[in-house]
Amino acid sequence: MKFDRRKTIVFLGDSVTEGCFALYPTDYGFDTFREPEKCFVTKVKNALTVKYGEENVNVINAGVSGDTTKKALLRFERDVMQYSPDVVVTATGLNDIFRDMNTYAECYRELAERVKGSGAKHIVMTPNMLNTYVHPETLPCSLKVASSTVEKQKDGTLDSIVEIQRKTATEFGAALCDVYLFWKKLYSSGVDTTALLANYINHPCEEMHGEAARLVLDVIESL
């Protein structure tokens, strides 16, 4: 993509996009440390700013912790369209693992339709893997969640979500940034991908945010 004028890129996503990392216990269960300065969106912004100059780069982080694709749709006008984006990166899916797959597919297809209708270029960014086992350092207050995400990773639920994203990208002519494939290759090669999650459940460590930034930067540059 040529940055011959100021370009606006909006990242629409969940807690990973927002910049959530490790968890901490609270009197209502647990919450997450928010460190947006370490997340892949900020890393992308910094890299593009260095290369093209601050005057040509406008990167918006529209990540909201806990958001499903349906919730992201509800705030699409407010959090995406108000910026008249040149590029929209959709990075949802992790919080859809407990939803009906047919409903998810409909919502994701609607999201792709909305992006296409806006005239912006669309990058479909698949999620990272979930934990494949309950890590011994998992917070006691989050053990129940950790067990349920292991199940959704191992029973193919997250794989199904990613496949829906890939097919939707093809159908609507969107570019694909396949972060999930990158993680799966690491896992297949024997890497303990659960140890690469800051909360041992679904939030990548900063190193893996760096990898995600590298992958999506390559796609942005190719548009």
Helix-strand category:
alpha/beta
Order of helices and strands: EHEEHEHHEHEHHEHH
Overall mean confidence score, pLDDT: 97
Number of DSSP helical runs: 9
Unreliable stretches, pLDDT < 50, 5 or more residues? Answer: none
- Which homologous superfamily in CATH is the superfamily? SGNH hydrolase
CATH top level is Alpha Beta
CATH fold assignment: Rossmann fold
Number of separate structural domains: 1
Percent helix: 40-55%
Rg computed from alpha carbons, rounded to a whole number of angstroms: 17 Å
Strand order of the largest sheet: 4-1-5-6-7
Shape: globular
Proportion of strand residues: 15-25%
Note the topology:
Elements lengths: L6 E7 L1 H4 L1 E7 L2 E6 L5 H13 L4 E7 L5 H6 L1 H4 L7 E5 L9 H18 L2 E5 L17 H12 L2 H16 L2 E3 L1 H10 L17 H17 L1
Parallel strand pairs: 1-4, 1-5, 5-6, 6-7
Antiparallel strand pairs: 2-3
